[in-house]
Write a structure and sequence with these properties.
alpha/beta
């Protein structure tokens, strides 16, 4: 009986080692299509009273790994009262395909996105 138990434990141990080795084995992934074939994208970012977070958020958007000519960014200012609008307008000055849509008064996130889609129908 001891030999049978030892044999079963040996099989399970060998199985566990095999699974561990296969998990570490490098796998060839399917080739990615070239990014130049990427579709045009409209990115809408609704913003309301985010002046404190914009200095971190806007540079993060700017370094996205997507072809600049295929990306349109619309920063939707939804009635901000803390200076967000001025920061947004200053940020998009030298950036092609970046726009600010300022709404007054605050209409809410869903309506702000709908307004942006009405002004930028390529989305």
């Amino acid at each position: 009986m001891a030999w049978i138990t030892a044999g079963v434990l040996l099989i399970f141990t060998a199985r566990r080692w095999l699974f561990s080795l296969l998990a570490l084995w490098p796998v060839k992934s399917a080739p990615r299509p070239p990014i130049s074939d990427a579709p045009s994208v409209l990115l809408l970012a609704p913003i309301r009273n985010e002046a404190q977070t914009l200095p971190e958020f806007l540079p993060a958007l700017a370094v996205m790994a997507y072809p600049k000519e295929k990306l349109t960014v619309v920063l939707v200012n939804d009635g901000s009262t803390d200076g967000s609008r001025e920061l947004l307008e200053h940020w998009v000055q030298d950036r092609p395909n970046w726009y600010v849509l300022s709404l007054t008064p605050n209409v809410g996130k869903a309506q702000a996105l709908n307004e942006a889609l009405a002004h930028f129908p390529q989305g």
